[in-house]
Amino acid sequence: MANSSSIDLATGEAAFESLCNSMATEQLDLNEADTRHRFLDVLLHDCLGWDRQHTRCERQKDGAYSDYELGTPPEIVVEAKRAGITFEIPVESGRSLIRSIRSLRSASREFTAAFNQAAQYCQSRSIQIGAVANSTQIVIFIGARNDGVPVEDGKCIVFSSHREMKDNFARLWNALSADGASRRLVISDLASNLPSGVPPKLSKYIAGYPSFRYPSEFQASLRMLSDLLIEDVPNTPEFRKRFLVECYCESGALAKDLLLGKKIIAARYAAMFNPAEKGPSLQPVLSNEDDAFGLSKEAVAEALGRRPIVIIGDVGVGKTSFIRNLIYVKAENEMQNGIFLYVDLGTQANLGQDIHSFLIQDITRQLLEDHNVDIQDDSFVRAVYHGDLIRFEKGIHGRLKELNPEKFLESQIAMLSDLCSNSVQHLQKSIEHLSKGRRKQVVICIDNADQRDLADQQSAFLAAQEFASVWKALVLVSIRPRTYFASKAAGSLSAYPQRILTVSPPRVDLVLQRRLTFSLELAEGREPIERLEGISVKLDSIATFLRALLYSLKHNRELTELVSNITGGNIREVLELIKGFIGSPNVDSRKIIDIQEAQREYVIPVHEFSKQALLGEYTHYDSRSSLAYNLFDIRYPEPREHFLSLFLLGYLLADGGAKNAEGFIQTTDILQEMRTQGFVPDQVEHALRRLTNKKLIETTERVTFDEGLQGLVGDMPVAFRATTIGSYHLYKWAPTFAYLDAMVFDTPIINESVKKVVAIKLNSFDIGDRYRRTVAFKDYLSDVWSTIESPPVYFDWPAILNTGFATFESVKRAVSMHG
Fold first, then answer.
1. Distance (Å, rounded) from C-alpha 575 to C-alpha 567?
2. Domains and CATH numbers, the chain
3. Can you state the percent helix, strand and coil of the chain, rounding each to 5?
4. Which of 182, 612, 680, 799 has the fewest CB atoms within 10 Å around its CB?
5. C-beta of residue 463 within 8 angstroms of C-beta of residue 354
6. pTM for the complete prediction?
7. Which of 724, 740, 712, 710 is nearest to 800 (CA)?
8. What is the rounded CA–CA span in Å between residue 388 and residue 417?
9. Percent of the chain with pLDDT over 90
10. Is the peptide bond before 210 cis (omega within 30 degrees of 0)?
């Protein structure tokens, strides 16, 4: 962050000691300018670490001049008063630094005047923290609040003398320093745990919310079959190769339906590395057809030169499919006399088990069970340590071979036993023997580490480094970008590879077309599957459903657009969405099957898919389980906040000079822009955290945020950018009937009269009641929009709302038909 401190706490404390000494030795009668120059300037810059280039004095707005505004963008307003004006501080028991603002206002007219002035600057300029100070006293408070608490009813931190500041300098540092301000520590001290005054959501009045919607027997059987046909059967050994040949899609192809530019998607991994430092080269996994192992010659040469081949890709982009296609299809000829050892950390290793130990155990097991190589077999051990046996025989024990053959054999066995006792070293020697002695290409793949925690991912990476640098094997390891970034930043990777292979999402429409076609062939019985015998009637039904899906995805671009964008190209989530749709309790699957059988060319409406993505298997939208994010939710009882998330997405998606080459915008720029719209940093940061955790935006550090007492917590990253998920939410989903119908239950409605209208027949699923309820909610949002005097150029609610007009008209016609 731009406002980080230039000094540390200890340095600041020493500087403050010197400041107090100089003030005590001089008889000073300071006016306001003197107070600022002799005391506050030194305190703020030399003791509390504010950089002078981030300090503005006498800043004018609407004819009013603030004494100090600290930070870029401004985070704190300080109003300076001359030394002769002291604040009467009421005596209270306990000597707490936290006081009531009202009690100070009651006791001191001087404080009241200074407080009113500073609070006015805070509110008119959307600067959250205010302070008033003279040469000996400082009072710090929240000057712009949106939590339903009037500023004058809040609390403040009072330092009533230099002695109190010295005795509690760490508290002063946390409240007013550049570092403390950037971490919002003073807000944590003075704000309530949660904002008050926000009305309860309508979901609070629904009994049993969120309630699970149970599928019918028919829907449950369809879901079971979809799991079997789409997920389970393709992963069985008998179908694996055919599945890869027919269904594998090369990574990196960009779907036309993605709502972000090609340049941004192509640079998705570049932001992991500082442009100023020397880092590895990033290259796509695509290669020439004649390249060994389906990889570039440079990558293979590097791997054989004792470096792991690192495959980086976000969750669900197809790293596992890439590896399997490489081994079983592309490098099939090369692997005929090879040994492929595949370790799946996603399903095999137990939680809590040491990753390195598990890798050694599992590789040993696979050699025995899959390749008939027992590394404890006597003849194998003697072949591995053939050189050691020769040296042993030439050594001092060699004479025993003739003098005492039994003793010689015992000594030889003891030596071999000692060599085998080190399991890691013995396995290493065994791999070297297979590679060099038996001339077998050994390939070790460590996959799905990204399904485990960060520590396990780093352990897997370091193990891969060890295996590649010491063992005579070609090592592949797949990890997330965040793991590589965190490991490199923390210094865990002392010598990272020169070349990183990146896996980008394949085209979702191609993946679905091939996967569903493959599943349809299975359902139609073209390939006998033992587990499917005796359920031919249900197979007929799911085959019909799959035909409808394939036809719809081919002829309805809105469907592929939705599926591609709300999953962010995560193929794992795409398949989960499709499987969930097939057996969803919120989808009338019998109707789809009946129409498909009658018409042969049925296009499933996009709102059916949208409903599944929004609700999943619940009766109402639940933010914890849904793919969707509620753009209109609020943290403070301020109606304008209904549009804060939309403003943020609009700003991040707009074309402009604030973006860097990878499409990121600095957090400081975002906070400053939202301040011009009247939002304080706490509001904005909370919204940024929620948007990040729901993947509508992403950070340079690839982080998510943890849940704390005051909501999502964690330091703000350097910059943010929007994702396809965020783009779809803003431009496609937000104005539709299906989306607003779902969000009405999860959005606090501040207008009580509107809330009463919306709450009529709240538990009804009748389409007429739903239409009336959703229209009232839409009108409420539009009324709130009309109160925003100067909306930003990058977001126009009426224009976006107009794009969803057809979805409301469609429901309106359905209501008319129902009478």
1. 10
2. 9-190 (3.90.1570), 217-230+529-615 (no CATH), 232-375+423-502 (3.40.50), 639-817 (no CATH)
3. 55, 10, 35
4. 799
5. no
6. 0.72
7. 740
8. 12
9. 34
10. yes
